[in-house]
Amino acid sequence: MTVLSHSCSSTSSILGLLLLSALSHSARAEVYLGQGTMSGEVTATSVLLQTRLTQTASLDADGDLPSAQGCVAFEWSTDRTLKDAKRTEFLLATPQSDSIVRIPLAGLKPGTQYWYRAIYGSDEAHTQVGPICRFSTLSGAESAKPVHFVMGSCMNYNKFMFGKEGKASGPVTATESDKQLGFPAFAAIAERQPEFFIGTGDIVYYDNPRNDAQTLDELRKCWHQQFRFPRMIELFASTPAYWSKDDHDFRFDDADLKGTRLPLPTTGIEVFREQMPLHAAGDTASPSYRTHRINQYLQLWFSEGRDYRSPNKMTDGPEKTLWGAEQRQWLQQSLKSSDAKWKILISPTPMVGPDDLRKTDNHTNLGGFRHEADAFFTWLGENNIQNFFTFCGDRHWQYHSLHPSGVEEFACGALNDENSRVGVAPGDAKGTDPDRIIQQPYTYPEPTGGFLDVVAGENLTVSFCDDTGQVLYSVTK
User: Global pTM?
Assistant: First the structure.
């Protein structure tokens, strides 16, 4: 599957000409922005803008938002009224790309709020304007202005919508209103008005007890169902985001690159790149691991945990890797060259834990990828990498843990109550730390959905919040 965007007016695009011709000779169907408009991968001078054309404004009788053909452009300005706005060229939205249009903006001003909206329709002659949205560019490495961001993970749609029938592991609290509006945590996050959001894996769940998604249409449907919620549309209309994938939005639970069970690895990789504003549309070459300098104090690293890993069942040792040699080398070199005070690795899976003993999927697991984690922690000490932290998703409980090497890990837990659970404590015989070498200043006593709220300036403050926004625990460095 190749994901491309085509210019509506390009004479070199045979597909575009054929599509426009067909549209001009047929009844023009209504088109909608059923999943709203979002921005992603914002830097000090650039951003990706994205929307998707749909045939309906809400889920149809099949519980989906089918793709609509048409054209999309974006206009943007530093003026909220979009006075003197600049406009991109129109691009085609086609079923081949799930009618997603993603357009990069460059040459922006650091630390500046921008306003934008989609111009969309069946063709360039029949357009309408979408809601006005906003994003702010990063202030950049010279700025001492603190930054405020939020991180969440493990957003299980089926547990949220169907409770115990959907195999909910935590308390079932979603009301009928919530099931119309979406996860309560997104309303709590929007109230906090963070400068950006980080979604660190398991954004959707392909494997679920009600409908195990395997085909391309089924995988796409998972994204359509999740991102049509009004609370998500509202949040991401005003909050740019950075996204990473894990096992459930790649293939299935604990998936690696082995086997013929559907979806295949290539499909999982391509669909994530199609659905999320991670790279420009059609970019299949740029790695999904990357780093962003946020301000004078903070640099973030986003690791990729699925695309390059050794088989889970491989015997652990120096040759077994979750990251792959190239990514590991990149991570070490970029950490050594960074002069940021706070260095945070955003990891889809934990590196400190503890975790369940039965697993062999991540860096904490005995028989998993523990050797690579231990070697990396040793490298951090040998190279005097100071103020390094891991922020992880994947685990469905919140915790703050300290590894004997000095590395601290903050796990954001599951976003919704129904996907939460009680965690594994240091010293638990059924965990990965039976000898209690890990210190754990915090984990919640009762399961709840929630997220991390972070402020990074001269000090670094990390707060654990439940899905109503109540602070459960906070620590300042």
Answer: 0.94
